[in-house]
Structures are given as C-alpha cells and as structure tokens.
Amino acid sequence: MVNMPIECVICGTNKKPSLMISIDTCEDCGDKNRHCDNCGANRLAKIWSNGACPECASEPIPATARVRVSNSKPSIIDTLTTLGWILFAMTGLSGLFLLNQDGGGILGVSIVIAGVFQLSIFLGFSAIIDQLYKINVNTSKPDKSDS
C-alpha cells in the first residue's frame, strides 16, 4: 500500500504520514495556533485531538471534503485557440489580398494553406492540453482506490 501525502491544514504543504502529528497537522506546525471555524477558538495545533477542536470538540473535516476542486480549465487553452484563429484570419486575409494582385496567385494560395495549418496546430495543442487537464482532474479524484 502506498502512503499518500497528507495536506497540513495550517501550512498547506503535502507531507508524508510519518511527518504528521495528527490526521491533518504536520510536526512543523504543532506549535502554531489553529483556528476553529465552528467556535472561533485559537489553540495550539498539537492539542487538537485528531483534528477535533479542544474547545467545542467539533469533528474534523474529512480529507475528501478538503480537496479543492476547480472546474475551470487552464487559461492557456483559450489563449492558444484565440491565437490560432487570429493567425488564421491574418494569413487568410493576406492570402486573399495576394490572390487579387497580379502574379500573386500561387503565393496567395500558399499563405491561405499556411494559415489553415497554423490554425490546426494551435487548435491541436489546445485540445491536447485540454485532454491532459481532464486526465489530471480524473486521476486526482479522492474516490480512487489505492490498489
């Protein structure tokens, strides 16, 4: 069985279970004050019993509920898509302009084809990044078993 890192609720770093003094606090933060959202008490982290507040004894938040879920996709996806369309529009208009000039027919067609290739490359990169992001989100869900 793999020992998954646990996030400390005070410092927010992921630590090995051997470096934790309780289910949600690392050894480094044991002498720091911890705030209870339920009763508002501030007490030393090392006196909290398995994540429960010593004042009100409120139950700790389960680790699965503490996972931060972000449903927004990375901004690079939209940036690459927009850049691809802008470059396509610029090369397409340049190609059409050259098509209307004397002797620029082949060059104009070549520039339009180059714009199509640029668009497909940028849309392809954004699709790859989107798929990698979806894979990352799906594999980091807490409901996966360790086996």
Folded structure, characterized:
The chain is mainly α and 147 residues long. The protein has two domains: 6-66, no CATH class; 75-139. 44% of the residues lie in helices and 7% in strands. It is built from three helices and four strands. Strands 1-2 form a two-stranded antiparallel sheet. α2 packs antiparallel against α3. The chain is rod-shaped. 15% of the residues are buried. The model is unreliable at 62-69 (pLDDT under 50).
Q: Could you say which structural class the secondary elements and strand pairing correspond to? A: mainly alpha
Mean pLDDT: 78
Largest sheet: 2 strands, antiparallel
Radius of gyration in whole Å, from Cα? 27 Å
- Output the helix-strand order: EEEEHHH
State the shape: rod-shaped
- Beta strand %: 5-15%
Tell me the strand order in the biggest sheet.
Answer: 1-2
Number of strands: 4
Helix and strand topology:
Elements: E1 6-7, E2 14-15, E3 33-35, E4 42-44, H1 63-66, H2 75-99, H3 105-139
Antiparallel strand pairs: 1-2, 3-4
Helix pairs in contact: 2-3
TL;DR?
The protein has helices at 63-66, 75-99, 105-139, and strands spanning 6-7, 14-15, 33-35, 42-44.
Labels describing this entry:
7% strand; two-stranded antiparallel ribbon; mainly alpha; 2 domains; 147 residues
